[in-house]
Amino acid sequence: MDIQNKTKNELIRELKELLQENNSLKKQKEKREAELIEAKEKAEEKEREQFFSFFNLSPDIMVIADPNGTFTAVNPAATKLLGYSEEELISKPFIDFVHPDDKQITLDEMARQINIGSTLNFENRYLNKNDSYVLLSWCAYFNKVAGITYATARDVTRERAIEIELIKSKEKAERNEIELKNAQQITHIGSWYLDIKTNEVVWTEELYKMYGFDPLLPVPPYTEHQKLFTAESWEILSTSLANTRETGIPYELELQTVKEDGSNGWLWARGETVLDKNNKIMGLWGAAQDITERKINEQNLIKIVKDLQESQHLAKIGSWDWDIKSDIITWSEELYKIFGVENNQDPPGYEDHLKIYAPESIERLDKAVKNTIQTGDPFELDLKKSEKNGTIGWVSSRCLPTININGEIISLHGTVQDITERKLAEKLLNVKNEELLVAKEKAEESDRLKSAFLANMSHEIRTPMNGILGFAEVLKEPDLTSDQQREYLEIIEKSGARMLNIINDIVDISKIESGQMKTSITETNVNEQIEFIYTFFEPEIEQKGIRLSMKKSLPSAEAIISTDREKLYAILTNLVKNAIKYTNEGSIEFGYSVKQAELEFFVKDTGIGIRTDRQEAIFERFIQAEMVDKLARQGAGLGLAISKAYVEMLGGKIWVESVEVQGSTFYFTLPYKIEPKEENDTKIQILTPEDENQIKKLKILIAEDDETSIKLITIGVGKFSSEIIIAKTGNEAVETCRRNPDIDLVLMDIQMPEMDGYEAAWQIRKFNEKVIIVAQTAYALGGDREKALASGCTDYISKPFNRAVLLSIVQKYFI
């Protein structure tokens, strides 16, 4: 019947029938889709259960790592073998546990194998909980798409140790046959020998077992060995054997075998040459181990990983459905896990369901649910779970309404996904970003200071070098007067002293930064230190027109403390030199006073002063180099940093009080204990020409291999020497002293060919205990003096030294 001829009632009836049929088909489709989803979830869950069952029950270590090589899962075998708890291994980078000597090798080998394929095989030493290392053999599968690594490992420490022992003991094989047999039974390693002349092959009993042969039967001849391997493995093995016979280079392979019963297996094989007494190859020797079980595990692991790849992209999402009228809620199995509820319980009703969340999330969720019920609008919220159980958790909740034919919302359904890790990662990322920003600012500040320091160093080194080289060139002019020559030589001398001071500061700050600076604690007379510094700087200060005074608060007998004499001298020298540098008029006073159990030293000047905001910064290294208001004064800017380090090493503290334009006072303290000592009157005096004439003529040995130094020392000791002998090696110095027992003084360079100065002094002391031996070194490192005295030297001086230093040594021992 044509639709135009149908009545209205007939059309309505047919329309209702079509709607009913459509609803029926829709319900069938929804039911089918639900069944398919349920079937897929069950299949995925079963796959996961199978994987984690294999994962947890495996006797070998099994781990999963993220793209950064950080463990995200470990099995019980890993915690048992390595001794760590699961929490101690999770979220730790794989490489952190690798032996330092194996780290780079492991990373290089992994990178090499990743370029070839997805399966990695390597060995390395791995840190155990008891701080010892075990040797692990790894098999890993690297998923390049997901960036995830699945790996299994066996402890082969004992096996490899036995393998090495077997290889090393091959020449003793006949005498150790019983021990070899026992070892092979324990490790399942067999060995073989091939006589290249006769092609005769010998197997151990363990090798018979690997191939499934009766040990009472003869070994198959070499020409039939092809049958024992697959075609591919035989080609690899025969090529390797030929190469080893030709080059003598051992081989190590993994080969697929064909056993007597026709089944396939795998073995690890190693071979190397056996040489006769003429170093000619007489045969090949090797070892083999059955690795079939390991290969099966590797293949199973790869298969499981590939099977799981399809489900890796599906997040752990649980679903729910809420019948509003009956208040019946249904959960999927995954949702029970997300909320930590036993799946044998009924899901809580709506009001109880809200209690799963933290208070700040309950109000948001309740408001969103009620809005969906009223308007039909879906929602998506990130909600925080309750912390009643002591854990922190976050979920992402999505909700859609179910509307009946009458347009009524009869139920809600949706999904819940655990996003705890994402939230924690976001929080951690925010913290890290803040830390990185602070670190970046510090790094930029450090780079800026170092750049300024290097620029300043370039200027400070080039300036005195320009003076030395420039005036050395000027001295070549033939028409110079004696006054001009003396003036230019003084400039060269001052430039050299300035450069030496800069180099010493750089060496000292480098040793301090690297922790190599040591202290040498001895009894030190503070008054003598103060007096010496006063005498040393007095001419320079008077020439500048400044008054200099010193203060000593203790009698000499009570002014003896236990400290590092050289470091105390360096601190005081740096502070006084700074005062001279920044004071143009007025006075400089230095000294000390007693403050309870401390000595408080001070250096006070009437110089330019220091701004308040810079008074802490001046003790930091590199700071002076970037100070734009320091005026044009020379120096590396390291003296105060070195002084601060020395003071703290000696148990004290250092600070400054200063007012701009009015001057500065630097203070530092050292521990003080009253231990009265007898006053020592053996002070070194500056020699006058009359005093020099009183020195007897000495027979002097100069042990030095540098021609310039020899010439300089010869000139320096010329006035009080009767004979000068030169030795350019340590051995020559010893023999010269042996042939000349009347030598009075030996100036011994520490760094010499054949035998160093320490050893030479030690040898000389064996036959001459009276000769004065003075060690001289360009190193000037902490501990050199003690090492020189311990080797038999009488005294010690550091290069470069001038004539006054030599004269003081002569005065000390020969007047």
Describe the structure in brief:
It is built from 24 helices and 27 strands. With 815 residues, the chain is of the alpha+beta class. About 4% of the residues have low confidence.
Q: Can you put this structure into words, describing what you see?
A:
With 815 residues, the protein is α+β, with helices and mostly antiparallel strands. Helices cover 45% and strands 23% of the residues. The protein is built from 24 helices and 27 strands. A five-stranded antiparallel β-sheet has the order 2-1-5-4-3, sandwiched between helices. It has a five-stranded antiparallel β-sheet with strand order 7-6-10-9-8, with helices on both faces. A five-stranded antiparallel β-sheet has the order 12-11-15-14-13. α1 (8-57) packs antiparallel against α9 and α16 runs antiparallel to α18. It is flat, with a radius of gyration of 44 Å. The relative contact order is 0.04. Mean pLDDT is 78; it is low at 308-313, 624-636 and 676-687.
Distinctive features:
815 residues; alpha+beta; five-stranded antiparallel sheet; 27 strands; flat
What is the oligomer described by this structure? single chain
How big a fraction of the residues is strand? 15-25%
SSE-based structural type: alpha+beta
Please tell me what the overall shape is.
flat
Which helices and strands appear, and what pairs or packs with what?
Blueprint: H1 8-57, E1 61-65, E2 71-74, H2 76-82, H3 86-89, H4 100-116, E3 119-127, E4 133-143, E5 148-155, H5 157-168, H6 177-187, E6 189-195, E7 201-203, H7 205-211, H8 231-247, E8 251-258, E9 264-275, E10 281-290, H9 292-312, E11 317-323, E12 328-331, H10 333-339, H11 350-354, H12 359-375, E13 379-384, E14 394-403, E15 409-418, H13 420-474, H14 482-513, E16 522-525, H15 526-543, E17 547-551, E18 560-563, H16 565-581, E19 587-595, E20 598-605, H17 623-626, H18 639-649, E21 654-659, E22 663-671, H19 689-694, E23 698-703, H20 707-717, E24 721-727, H21 730-739, E25 745-749, H22 757-765, E26 772-777, H23 784-790, E27 795-798, H24 803-814
Parallel strand pairs: 17-19, 23-24, 23-25, 25-26, 26-27
Antiparallel strand pairs: 1-2, 1-5, 3-4, 4-5, 6-7, 6-10, 8-9, 9-10, 11-12, 11-15, 13-14, 14-15, 16-18, 19-20, 20-22, 21-22
Helix pairs in contact: 1-9, 13-14, 14-18, 15-16, 16-18, 21-22
